[in-house]
Amino acid sequence: MDVYSGIAVDYLDRYTSLPAVFSSDGLEYLLSFAVRKVLTGRRLVVGVINGKPNESLQADFETLRTGLSRDYSLHELIPGDPIPPEVDALLVLGGT
Q1: Which run of H or E residues covers position 33?
Q2: pLDDT, block means (10 residues), the chain with 96 residues
Q3: Which residues have C-beta within 8 Å of that of residue 87, sequence separation ≥ 6?
Q4: How far apart are CA 80 and CA 82, in angstroms?
Q5: How much is the pLDDT for 24?
Q6: Is 21 helix (H, G, I), strand (E, B) or coil?
């Protein structure tokens, strides 16, 4: 088994790194994500629409919010409102 102490992805004046890599499981995704991150020069934006008005992203989807916010900018959207052009992906929660 090969173990790498880290992988650096560098493009122009932008840089990101992957911590120690012990396995090739998920490595393709991590590398693709790192390459996209340095090429775009910005965090990807995920729009989140919650279809249930009595639930909130902060309180009812804490694990999801915490996990996504490590790598993405989250924008909570109101159902029925137009989707802003800066949103790269849309996540709909609790829709009926």
Answers
A1: helix 27-40
A2: 75 82 79 84 87 78 85 88 93 76
A3: 45, 46, 47, 75, 77
A4: 7
A5: 76
A6: strand
d(CA 86, CA 79): 17
Contact criterion met (CB below 8 Å) for 83 and 39: no
pLDDT at 85: 94
Q: Residue 1: its pLDDT value, please? A: 58
Each domain of the chain, given as residue ranges in start order, spans 7-40, 44-93
Burial 22-45 (b: 16+ CB within 10 A, else e): eeeeeeeeeeeebeebeeeeeeeb
Asked whether the beta carbons of 21 and 6 are under 8 A apart, the reply is yes
Q: Collapse the DSSP code of 3 into the 3-class scheme (helix H, G, I; strand E, B; otherwise coil) and give the result.
A: coil
Return phi, psi of residue 59, to 5°. Answer: -90, -40
